[in-house]
Write a structure and sequence with these properties.
There is one protein chain. It contains 17 helices and 8 strands. With 339 residues, the protein is α/β, with parallel strands linked by helices. The chain has 2 domains: 178 residues, NAD(P)-binding Rossmann-like Domain (Rossmann fold, 3-Layer(aba) Sandwich); 154 residues, N-(1-d-carboxylethyl)-l-norvaline Dehydrogenase, domain 2 (Orthogonal Bundle). Strand 5, helix 6 and strand 6 form a beta-alpha-beta unit. Helix 9 packs antiparallel against helix 10 and helix 15 runs antiparallel to helix 16.
């Protein structure tokens, strides 16, 4: 039996822990709060994040990080990107051998502009890294815990590592593909949150399906342009972790990034939105990082720039949409990879 420690008991961390427990792995989830761990153990629920959804009775929880990682064959990192470094620094002294590290976070660190796998490599000694795999794709936690069909990708530059994670997670309702383009998978999973904020804003402003379809399509062009410039494979962005994740995040009320954008479009301030949500909105930090990456790599990302102006430069959503619509004329296909 494989022992897996899931670090992070939010909605997605709990959902992937459920998949592992359903697959009969020895699964233990680390929760920062004692009362949350007790609820998972005693009631098989995590109501703060997943309402009344029933969790597998075999899933264990602990508020002790040392207990969680002791004897583990793999560690799943399920914390927001903003908490990744602090979490790795807590875990590092507890590990004394090469470990399989799996992350399910979707974000880019502002200023350093590092992807999550790069943060892991920077924070951990090579002696405790067997492999790093990103598990990503169109996957709302609320549906995963209800055993709704879900398909994701396990990405690593080591095929064996990706295949190991594929075998670890795959079952009749959770299908896993492998992908050797970890750059593209991580960028697609991160940057789609930026576009999802925009989709929420257009809905909040009362725009229709035409506007959302255009935003998703042109948003994918931006993501692809930047990704290819950074070394990703173009086809990755047509797959699950590109187009697939973009569709689900831009069109579902389960998406916290869509909900945040929707509130912004209806006139709420960013501070009000963050206070009301009570959960990390990855798209906000990632918009800042994407803005910085676009400048660094000299890539045209007009939707990202419009969102940056709304979030950080006090431009109203209505003004940002008008600026996008009144940009200079372009030829669509030639513009796709126009740097």
């Amino acid at each position: 039996m494989t022992k897996v420690a899931v670090v992070g008991a939010g909605s997605w961390g709990t959902a992937v822990a459920c998949v592992l427990a359903d697959n009969a792995h020895d699964t233990i989830i680390y929760a920062r709060r004692e009362e949350q761990a007790a609820e998972i153990n005693e009631q098989s629920t995590n109501r703060s994040y997943l309402g009344d959804a029933r969790l597998p009775s075999t899933l264990r929880a602990t508020a002790s990080l040392a207990e969680a990682v002791e004897g583990a064959d793999a560690i799943v990192l399920a914390v927001p990107t903003s908490a990744m470094r602090a979490t790795l620094r807590q875990v590092k002294p507890l590990v004394d051998h090469p470990m399989r590290w799996i992350h399910v976070s979707k974000g880019i660190e502002p200023d350093t502009l590092l992807r999550v796998s790069e943060i892991i490599e920077e924070e951990l000694d090579a002696s405790i890294i067997h492999s790093i795999v990103a598990l990503s794709g169109p996957s709302h936690a609320e549906e995963v815990v209800q055993h709704q069909p879900t398909t994701v990708s396990a990405a690593s530059d080591q095929l064996e590592a990706a295949e190991w994670v594929q075998d670890l997670f795959m079952n009749e309702t959770f299908r896993v593909y492998t992908n050797d383009d970890i750059i593209g998978v991580e960028l697609g999973g991160s940057l789609k949150n930026v576009i999802a904020l925009g989709a929420g804003i257009t809905d909040g402003l009362g725009h229709g399906d035409n506007a959302k379809a255009a935003l998703i399509t042109r948003g994918l062009a931006e993501i692809t342009r930047l990704g290819v410039k950074m070394g990703a494979k173009p086809l990755t962005f047509s797959g699950l972790t590109g187009l697939g994740d973009l569709i689900v995040t831009c069109t579902s009320v389960h998406s916290r990034n869509w909900r945040a954008g929707n509130a912004l479009g209806r006139g709420e301030s960013l501070e009000e939105v963050e206070r009301t949500m009570g959960m990390v909105i990855e798209g906000v930090r990632t918009t800042k990082a994407a803005h910085q990456l676009a400048l660094q790599h000299d890539v045209s990302m007009p939707i990202t720039e419009a969102l940056y102006s709304v979030l950080f430069e006090e431009v109203t959503p209505k003004e940002a949409v008008e600026a996008l619509m009144n940009r200079m004329k372009k030829q669509e296909v030639a513009d796709l990879f126009d740097q």
